[in-house]
Amino acid sequence: MSTASSALDSPTAPLPGSRPAEVIAAERTLGGDLRVLARICRLILRYRGRVALAVVATVVAGLFQLAIPPLLGRAVNTALGLAGDASVSGAAAREGLFVAAALLLAASTLRGAFTLVQNYGGESIGHLLAYDLRLAFYRKLQQLSFSFHDRAHTGDLITRGILDIDGVRWLTSAGLLRVLLLAILIGAGAIQMISTDITLGLLSLSFVPFAIWKSTTTRLRLRALWLTVQEKMAILGRIMDENLSGIRVVRAFGAEPHELTKYDRAADEAMAITHERVRTRAGYSSVMTLSYFVALGLVLWVGGTRVLAGAMSVGTLTEFLTFMTILQLPVRQMGMVVNAFARAATCGARLFVVLDHQPTIAERPDAKTLENPRGVVRFDDVSFAYPGGGDSRTLHRVSFLVEPGRTLGLVGPPGSGKSTIAHLLPRYYDVTAGRITIDGEDIRDLTLDSLRRAVRVVQQDSFLFTSSLENNIAYGDPWADEDAIHRAAATSQIEGFVERLPERYQTLVGERGVSLSGGQKQRVAIARAALLEPPVLILDDSTAAIDAGTEWRIREALRAGAANRATIIISHRLSTLRHADEILFIEGGQIVERGTHEQLIALNGRYAALHALQGRHDLTEAQP
Amino acid sequence: MTAADASRSGRPPRAVVGSQINRDEEMFGAAFDRAIFGRFLSYARPYRRALVLAVVGVLAFTATQLAIPLIIRFAIDRALIVDPAQAVPLVVIMAAFAAVIAVNYVANRSQDYFVGLTGERIIFDLRRAMFAHLQEVALAFMDRTEVGRMMSRLQGDVSSLQEFIDNSVTAVGDIVLLLGIVVIMLWLDWQLGLFTLALVPTLLFVRLIWLPRARRAFRHARETNSIVNGALAEGIHAVRTVQGMVRETVNFALYDDKARENLRAHLRAAKFGQVMVPIVDTMTGFALAIVVVLGGTLVIERTLDVGVIVAFVFYVQRFFDPIRSLTMQYSVMQRAMASGQRIFEVLDVPLAMADKPDAIDPATITGAIAFRDVTFGYVKGQPVLRNVSFTVSPGETIALVGPTGSGKTSVTALLHRFYDVWDGAVTIDGRDVRDYAKKSLGRHVAMVLQDPFLFSGTIAENIRFRTASASKEDVERAARVVGAHDFIAKLPLGYETPLDQYGRNLSLGQRQLLSFARALVADAQILVLDEATANIDSYTEQQIQAALRRLLEGRTGIVIAHRLATVRHAGRILVLQEGRIVESGRHEDLIRSGGLYARLHAFNFSSFDDAEGISGRT
């Protein structure tokens, strides 16, 4: 690997053109969908009591609703029958009507009460399920190894945790219980109506098969369109987001017209699909209503003809007509039901594929806790290739030993494998061959917790949480006392800056808080590690944005704090490494030169060449 | 948690997950604001015809809905239970029914179509208006505004307006339906009608008590959503730090608290949402009971036709729907007005300085730059530059050096006229930059910014950027000149390689070189370069330095330098401190003179920026 041609190759960047999201794509077949729905149902069944209650309530609510049409029919017949017969007393007539009215009121009220139980039951099961999934998802993401997070798209994972959990949540209330209600209304309703009059019964239900077919096919089509609209809107969103984030570039190049053209093209595409969707939706809802009215008309016509022929009472006709008003709403909701199932299947699949992912780094069942670690770090013939990286090895047979109180320096061109070493020691990835030991124990035999508490890595870009400075420094030990926090801040030379802030350690930093410069962020990250006083400390290019003088002071403070610590420093800046007990020059995943600064300069090889490249001035040690 | 942690857990941990600030602040104001509504209407104006058709559709649809129970009533009373001699033939009534449902079908379809489409169109127009406006507003505004907040206006606020448009047309239908039912009931039988309608105030009263409480519960549920989702997003973004710091257990417990609060809030909201169901159903039961008892009695007394009872049954069951959706409309309008206010706030941001009517747009320039006594600042009374004067000859490169906040970036921003000077003048080829057309400055002054911002799209598209006329060969030539061709050619798709968001699939050095190539294709006579402060290793730096020299060949250059190597190649160095030029000259001269530059230089060899304590202020 010659430095001149490949200096720009980045080690961690995935191959351009590979779509990271596909790594965790879910299977999409009918069988797969059914399996996903079955799995959601199993999760729902954790809440057996609620499910049973909701199911019973749904059935009872449906039956009470079906009781209303016959009551109305009877009332009409009573009124009409009495109207034709003057001999019956008014009191008896009123009594008949009062009984009917009381029953109607009771049926309506009870239907309402049971519907409340049905709806609340369904919704609460959905929320409980969402809660369970939320926790499982969060826990899983915390467990999954770096190799997973390298390939997964953050935005995509967040969407799964928000929208997909929501999609699954609706299955109970908008899907399962509605289907049950519909089945009761149509099933029990059919028995009731057909036993009253077979022709009219069939006519009143005649629109149902059409409605079910239409809502299934159209809803699936609308869903597909909706997903396309979302895709197009995501593109439009990205164009806007990039434009606003890069507004200075846009302005600097006078590229506003170019940007508007780009925007318009994306917006037109989104509008075209949206148009199609509006048209499909309008056609669908109107034809559903039409089919219902046609059936209503047929019932009225055939029923009317029977009444005229004296074969049926007006009350019975009324019963049929009101039965149809009951059917109207649930049948119109068929579309929502289909949508709920389709959505739950897609969303569930996208969630489960993450939940089923097994972390590649797992503890052995008999893993040991690393007790009172001394910090003797040994790399024993270690080779490593990034997962999915094919045969290209990032590290090739690397061996070294760092003892407590000693410092190892790593230097080399970008992509040479320096940072990989920092990632292997706390087991963010596992070695492909060879072994790494701490105090003589293979790190794969240790519990992850005890290993990672012993080995602390300060990354170049560590995450600054939107929280107080104090919480950020105490991130690794939230129970640390104030003195320890202040000491860590002093060590990392951030104390002076903190003292000047109006709210000192309580100052909110990060997004929406006080924004820190790159060097200040790195110093917070160092304080975070310093607080923990780890037996093994790795500084992975973590002082790059800090000026040389401050860096020197940090190094001195760290050195004073821990005589028994093994330290590994990775840096591009040779002055940072110069005092290390041993310096490894890494290139192409191999150690090509090793020794002290003086030895390496004397060797007159790559290290010496880099030294010359950085210039005479670079090594003028800055010591205030 | 280990035993050691557990023993110290007597007090709560210094730990939180997620941001403690709720970012989706909801505004609660008036449900109707004439000014906002009026401006909003102006966006609806282009779609007048479609809107009229939509309203006609809604009205026709509502009318047919009202007509159907009447037809049934008519069928029963005039065709079925009447002396056959006076009976209207059932066929005639059925023909009328067929006609009504045909109209219903057409009206329904056109209502849905026109409402939906117009809503979408207006929303797309509004979004585009905002986006286009943002292209023109003063940069100072963009600097102050978080992109995330702006995006939520472009997407979130616009959607709540869409909900409003959809709902307001249906609201017209609901009002007509409600009034129609009332009128028809009273017309069919005023006694029965009045008794049935007596239930309405009761329901309204219950709903008015319920509404504010329910709204509070719903709002709280929504707020807990954004809290719990924010914590999730943080957990995903920070996963590497979380694992490195072994914070999984603590974070999970904290997240569980938030998720539990979210669950509680949603269960409460669900109770509120559902409690109206039995109330409305009981009301309906009462209404049906009244119709049966009172209507039945009237039928027995032969003062009412039985068909009227059937029609009432139909109306009663439809009666409470519009009341529900109309009371819901209040929150929709409130949200829409708040969103509208935020949207128009964006549209009201004043535009950046406009071109003069006689602005010049020369085809070529020589590239002579002069700052004459320039004073400038962002906040009134706090100048960032004070009486700055210097000239750059065509083809010369100067370096600007100075501690953070010394005004370097402002110098370059003024040259491009991102802002106007307070006093003095900035000239190019002897003409004030205010005399040039903005697009002319865009063409003749290219900028390479600290952050090599790249757009989604292929590498070739990014290098070409706004120079649509650049051929494939031009793109490749530029890439070769800056030394980017080698790594591009090695990619499987070469120049057609698609970039991830912000070009994350390239290293910083690679992105930097692409931004150089982009400036080269733009081929401007003046080049302004804000050097990256980010850490770049020596190897990459070497390539970038070489590229920089080739880029500046034959152009006038102003470089905001952070690196010694860059400075040493510049013909002249201007040292800025607190808005003034304190030193200028060649590297060696400045070192010899032992001023600020010499001190900066002694302290740091790779970046001048983070050198706290020697910035001259202490």
Detailed description of the structure:
The complex is a heterodimer of chains A (624) and B (618). Chain A has 624 residues and is an alpha/beta fold. Chain A folds into 3 domains: 24-192 and 346-360, Up-down Bundle (ABC transporter transmembrane region fold); 198-311; 377-616, P-loop containing nucleotide triphosphate hydrolases (Rossmann fold, 3-Layer(aba) Sandwich), CATH 3.40.50.300. Chain A contains 22 helices and 12 strands. Chain A has helices spanning 3-6, 30-44, 48-84, 90-143, 146-151, 154-196, 198-204, 207-245, 247-252, 256-308, 314-332, 334-355, 418-424, 448-454, 469-473, 482-491, 495-500, 518-532, 548-561, 574-577, 597-603, 606-618, and strands at 377-384, 395-402, 407-411, 433-438, 441-442, 455-458, 467-468, 508-509, 536-540, 566-570, 582-587, 590-595. A 6-stranded mixed sheet of chain A has the order 6-9-10-3-11-12, sandwiched between helices. In chain A, strands 2-1-4-5 form a 4-stranded antiparallel sheet, covered by helices on one side. In chain A, a hairpin with a 2-residue loop joins strand 4 and strand 5 (441-442). The two termini of chain A are 39 Å apart. In chain A, 50% of the residues are buried. Chain B is of the alpha/beta class and 618 residues long. Chain B folds into 3 domains: 31-188 and 330-352, ABC transporter type 1, transmembrane domain (ABC transporter transmembrane region fold); 190-303; 369-603, Rossmann fold (3-Layer(aba) Sandwich), CATH 3.40.50.300. Chain B is 62% helix and 11% strand. Chain B has 21 helices and 12 strands. Chain B has a 6-stranded mixed sheet with strand order 6-9-10-3-11-12, sandwiched between helices. In chain B, strands 2-1-4-5 form a 4-stranded antiparallel sheet. In chain B, helix 18 links the parallel strand 9 (526-530) and strand 10 (556-560). In chain B, helix 3 (48-80) runs antiparallel to helix 11. Chain B is elongated.
